[in-house]
Amino acid sequence: MVKAHTIAVLPGDGIGPEVIAEAERVLRTVAEGSGLRLTLERYPIGAAGVAAAGDPLPEATRAAVTRADAVLLGAVGDPALDGAPRHLKPETGLLALRALLGVFANLRPVSVHPVLAGRSPLKADRLQGVDVLIVRELTGGLYYGEPRGRAASRAVNTLTYSTVEVERVARIAFAAARRRRGLVTSVDKANVLEVSQLWRDTVTHVAREYPDVRLEHLYVDTAAMRLVAEPAAFDVILTENMFGDILSDEAAVLAGSLGLLPSASLGAGPGLFEPIHGSAPDIAGRGIANPIGAIASVAMLLRHGLGRAAEADAVDAAIERVLAAGARTRDIAEPGAATLGTGAMGQRIAEQVGNEGRTTNAGPAMPPPALRIPH
Ligand code: IPM
Ligand code: MN
Fold first, then answer.
1. Nearest ligand 1 atom to alpha carbon 94
2. Nearest bound ligand to the CA of residue 76
């Protein structure tokens, strides 16, 4: 009897529910084609959590994510709550979820689909061969440091990291680089910040465990510049929480649209899988959002969350084929070209996965060795 996996699905706010509906459609198709048994259970988060239970991470959601095998998230954020106290902000729910799951390593792969190179504002020659994995520390740094707070004319946030926090995320980056092109670029601000000096020393120390991986260090300002000037020079970028937030949006420009990009957040327990785009309130409810970031997050969920590499490959391949065949949502279309809505794009990808599923022998579940969290 095949073990059933429970996926906690948190659609969230804005375009979250629209793109998550397509991600679920693809997951169900994968399950049908491969014999994988999945139970998808929906719970509120963000503004939806505040509306349902007065809490951006309601108790029922907390309980569900900790017993799930993996968590699939849409997006959080609602301009109506911009002025709300911190404990009622949608973003607070997301940060609490990351902390609850202990997902300290956030993987954000960015590559350029050759057929979409024209959608990036960068020159095509810069984009050739771009394939970057950003490994962002996700449960420490300025986002979580205490003390924090705001008074009338002064506010404080605290940047703090321990060697243990740096070591564990560094190992994820080195292990990933080992399976890629063998280069880790660690990004810090060690010319100014003591925390960055500790970061740099600790990463240098961890690098000795990976003699086959090359390590370089860059200051964050230089890294930001090089990311657009010479993006193909990067393999794995390892950085702290806030720098990783900023650099990953910058890197998204390379791909042509934020709507394409997935992420996986890993720790010792269930992983969290989400597109890197936000709730996009300006286009929410119109059925025009790009579901590819969410669907590619399903591929990461299958690969890193459930250890199903063959099914993950099938989803990635389906996205590639649909793009190669010319299917475009509004964000990635040539000006004036025909576009597909969220549902039609999701349906095309699901159909491709369906075709693939019948010709591929999925085989036994494969563990995701390089990215297993060592502990
Ligand atoms: C991201 C988002 C979040 C972050 C926000 C919504 C709190 O921008 O996942 O990159 O800053 O981490
Ligand atoms: Mn961000």
1. 7
2. 1
Q: Is the CB of 351 under 6 A from ligand 1?
A: no
Please report which ligand is nearest the Cα atom of 242.
1
Q: Which residue has the least CA distance to atom 6 on ligand 1?
A: 91
Yes or no: say if 282 and 354 are a contact pair by the CB < 8 Å rule: no
Sort 229 into a burial class: Cβ within 10 Å, 0-12 / 13-18 / 19+: exposed
Low-confidence spans in the chain with pLDDT less than 50: 357, 359-375
76 CA: nearest ligand 1 atom? 6
| Catalytic annotation, residues | 143, 189, 221, 245, 249
- C-beta of 91 in contact with ligand 1 (< 6 A): yes
- Collect residues with CB below 5 Å from ion ligand 2: 245
Print burial letters for 171-187: b (CB count within 10 Å at least 16), e (below 16): bbbbbbbeebeeebbbb
Query: Across the strands, what pairs with 72?
Result: 9, 273
Reading phi first (left if > 0) and then psi (alpha if -120 to 50, else beta), residue 363 is in: left
Dihedral angle, C-alpha 194, 200, 201, 205, nearest 10 °: 160
pTM for this model (two decimals): 0.93
Query: What's the pLDDT score for residue 318?
Result: 97
Q: Is the CB of 245 under 6 A from ligand 1?
A: yes
pLDDT of residue 356: 65
What's the rounded Cα separation, in Å, for the pair 27 and 211? Answer: 38
What residues have CB less than 8 Å from 83, skipping those under 6 apart?
Answer: none
Q: What is the pLDDT of residues 299-345, one digit of tens each?
A: 999 999 999 999 999 999 999 999 999 999 999 999 999 999 999 99
pLDDT of 354: 85
CB atoms within 10 A of CB 131: 15
pLDDT at 372: 44
- Residue 176 gets which letter from DSSP? H
d(CA 46, CA 89): 7
